[in-house]
Amino acid sequence: MNASAKPLAGIDAVAIVVGIVVGAGIFRTPPLVAANLPGEPAILGVWIAGALLSLAGALCYAELASTFPATGGEYSLLRRAYGKRIAVLYGWSRLLVIQTGSLALLAYVYGDYATRLLALGPNSAALHAAIAISAITAIHWTGLRMGARAQRWLTALEIAGLGLLVLAALWAEPAATAPAAGPLESSSIGLALVFVLLTYGGWNEAAYLSAELEGPPARIARVLVSSIAVIAGAYLLVNYALIRALGTNGLAASDAPAADVLQAAWGPGGALLISLMVAAAALASAHGTILTGARSAHALGQDVRGMGWLARWDAERHSPSNALLLQGGIALLLVAAGAMARDGFQLAVEYTAPAFWFFFLAVGVSLFVFRARQPHMVRPFTVPLYPLVPAIFCASCTYLLYSSLAYTGIGALFSAGLMLSGVLLFPFLRADDRDAR
Predict the structure, then answer these.
(1) 418 contacts: CB under 8 Å, gap ≥ 6
(2) Which stretches are transmembrane (predicted)?
């Protein structure tokens, strides 16, 4: 692809990355972080640490993306580095854990805020979450897609919601500052980082914009660094605003902190307005998750014998209908499990985290694999301070993988078992040799 055929300007790429990462999670994860840390410095510090670790990972992805600009995401990258088995294990994990867990997580964000608009009983958040998954899956299954204009409006509502939240927090009377609850513990830091880095997640998908980015391939590094700087600034400002308005204890106790801040500042009308904005943002994120998740499941069906039904494409509806239905069904099961837990959103985070960090680690290690296997290959961008930066990224992934298993609940162990069950597919892999797609 020549430079004139690359339609994506740098500022457009930054906007896409920020739009992917700044999802509905920032409206829900701050209480979970605050509940695990003793005071404001620790809370803000862990969000800064999350930004730095994300930056280290982004630099690693920038090298991989600029070297293999048309690899098509982690599936193809893992296949190129380790072979088809690991790639299929990743596709299996996306279907059962990563993508469906993320869908349940977003649905619970929607449910927590939709309940502020219309309570549906004792399990209101779970009911709203199930309705959202069913409705969006049905829309995709019928072939109808939310237009680009609607998506832009939903994203605009999300950004407006962040601005409104900060404005309201500065307007409201500051909450009393509680003293630090106690010393920092490694388990608390590890669990808080799981939530923080999940909220920073998404830049890894954007790293593969390099195939469409104007200018030299190395420009993707500047895009990723600029994007993470913008995101980190926004997240720190939001957390500072939440702590100022609610206090650390009030933030830790809140299920819908944005609504609580607007309630304190401008009364019930403000709480309803922000709840509507966050609910719309969660639906926008869930819409994209359903779209991409079903297509990766469709690709998995093409690689595994006996799963061809999953790869069927409905030409009339222009959608992978069977993959959509299976994905929606799994996500609904996860929502039902969350309804029986103390916190459905937290259970979804714990369920998703082990697979997420395992494959993040695998991608990080692949950089060392490619450096050793192809030392003389032209790399438009190379990670600075190699091997220190990728080693830091891999070490953080290893620690977060450990934390997601050691400091969380049964959901994490169950998801790890499901991920490993993908090895049962190995005897059924199709005998082809598509190592790069």
Answers:
(1) 93, 96, 97
(2) 7-27, 42-65, 86-111, 117-141, 153-172, 184-203, 223-243, 263-286, 322-341, 353-371, 383-402, 408-429
DSSP per-residue string spanning 73-85: SHHHHHHHHH-HH
**pTM of this prediction?**
0.79
Based on the number of CB atoms within 10 Å of its own CB, is 352 exposed (0-12), middle (13-18) or buried (19 or more)? Answer: buried
Q: What would you report as the CA-atom Rg of the chain, rounded to the nearest whole angstrom?
A: 21
Q: Is the pLDDT of residue 7 over 60?
A: no
Q: What's the average model confidence in pLDDT over 310-333? A: 78
pLDDT at 71 over 50: no
Extract the tokens encoding 117: 């608009």
Q: Are 265 and 172 in contact (CB under 8 A)?
A: yes
pLDDT, residue 372, reads: 94
Spatial neighbors of 212 by CB under 8 A, at least 6 apart, are 6, 7, 8
- Return the amino acid letter for 291: L
CATH fold, domain 16-428, is: Amino acid/polyamine transporter I (1.20.1740)
Q: What is the mean pLDDT of residues 250-272?
A: 85
Q: What is the 3-state secondary structure (H, E, C) of 359-390?
A: HHHHHHHHHHHHHHHCCCCCCCCCCCCCCHHH
Q: How much is the mean pLDDT over the chain?
A: 80
| Residues 283, 303: Cα–Cα separation, whole Å | 31
Domain boundaries defined on the chain: 16-428
Q: Are 323 and 302 in contact (CB under 8 A)?
A: no
Would you call 179 exposed, middle or buried from its count of C-beta atoms within 10 A (0-12, 13-18, 19+)? Answer: exposed
